[in-house]
């Protein structure tokens, strides 16, 4: 069965949240924090990551019940395409099928779409 999730995030809201180190540590994995540190515009990247995590749990159909922000890591492959890296718990909830994510943003908003088979 095909499962889809989509989320849209206001970049400015995430930009303000990034000023709080506790927010960063709670909501972003170590790999994501390293990615953000390497970006010229980290708020845009962070908003895309946030939207992708929200889209993933919407595709699961459970929300964040049984899975947390640290169970979902949104990284980049060698060509820069976003990919989801899941903890064993999140992978089990997802059913082990293929997962694809797409992220885009404009000046004020980021959007992510997740498809799971």
UniProtKB/TrEMBL annotation:
Mg(2+) binds at residues 7, 54. Its cofactor is Mg(2+). Residues 4-90 form the 4'-phosphopantetheinyl transferase domain. Keywords: Cytoplasm, Fatty acid biosynthesis, Fatty acid metabolism, Lipid biosynthesis, Lipid metabolism, Magnesium, Metal-binding, Transferase. Its EC number is 2.7.8.7. Its main location: cytoplasm. SUPFAM superfamilies: 4'-phosphopantetheinyl transferase. It comes from the Bacteria. It is an enzyme of class 2 (transferase). This is Holo-[acyl-carrier-protein] synthase. One of its GO terms (molecular function) is magnesium ion binding. It catalyses: apo-[ACP] + CoA = holo-[ACP] + adenosine 3',5'-bisphosphate + H(+). It is found in: Cytoplasm. InterPro entries: 4-PPantetheinyl_Trfase_dom, 4-PPantetheinyl_Trfase_dom_sf, ACPS, Ppantetheine-prot_Trfase_dom. Belongs to the P-Pant transferase superfamily. AcpS family. Transfers the 4'-phosphopantetheine moiety from coenzyme A to a Ser of acyl-carrier-protein. GO terms for cellular component: cytoplasm. Pfam families: ACPS. One of its GO terms (biological process) is fatty acid biosynthetic process.
């Amino acid at each position: 069965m095909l499962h889809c999730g989509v989320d849209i995030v206001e970049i400015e809201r995430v930009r303000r949240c990034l000023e709080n180190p506790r927010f960063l540590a709670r909501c972003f994995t170590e790999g994501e924090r390293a990615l953000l540190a390497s970006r010229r515009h980290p708020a845009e990247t962070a908003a895309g990551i946030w939207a992708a995590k929200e889209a993933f749990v919407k595709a699961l159909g459970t929300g964040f019940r049984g899975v947390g922000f640290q169970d979902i890591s949104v990284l980049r492959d060698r060509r820069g395409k976003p990919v989801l890296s899941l903890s064993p718990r999140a992978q089990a909830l997802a059913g082990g099928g293929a997962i694809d994510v797409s992220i885009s943003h404009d000046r004020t908003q980021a959007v992510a779409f997740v498809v799971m088979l």
